[in-house]
Design goal:
The protein is 81% helix and 0% strand. The protein has 113 residues and is mainly α. It comes from Lates calcarifer (Barramundi).
């Protein structure tokens, strides 16, 4: 009882509220890099394919199709960009991604329709 009164008198509960507010303001750097990578050309393309698949599957009442392949393609492209960003830095990641795409044979980049 006395301890609780001291905490209230000393204003420690306010300190806890401030700590909670500070924690809310913290941003995970990985999420920031992921969001930036999702804006890269190849990631935008794979996200569009994922969204098209989700729309197609959602419009059908009965289908065995799922969008697993499209989801994995998008996650792979995004994670590749993230890994390049963490290795080469954010300014070089998009350039590296474009160069790496240029090195992949065009038939590998084409998707089944």
């Amino acid at each position: 009882m006395v301890f609780e009164e001291k905490m209230i008198m000393n204003g420690e509960p306010d300190d806890e509220e401030e700590e909670e507010e500070e924690e809310e303001d913290m941003v995970d750097p990985l999420e920031t890099v992921r969001q930036k990578c999702e804006e890269a050309e190849h990631c935008v393309h794979t996200r569009e394919r994922l969204e098209q698949c989700e729309t197609r599957v959602g419009s059908r009442s009965s289908t065995e199709e799922d969008c697993t392949e499209e989801l994995f393609d998008f996650l792979h492209a995004r994670d590749h960009c993230v890994s390049v960003t963490s290795t080469f830095g954010p300014s070089n990641s998009v350039q590296h991604l474009q160069v790496s795409q240029a090195l992949v044979p065009s038939n590998v980049l084409k998707y089944k329709t």
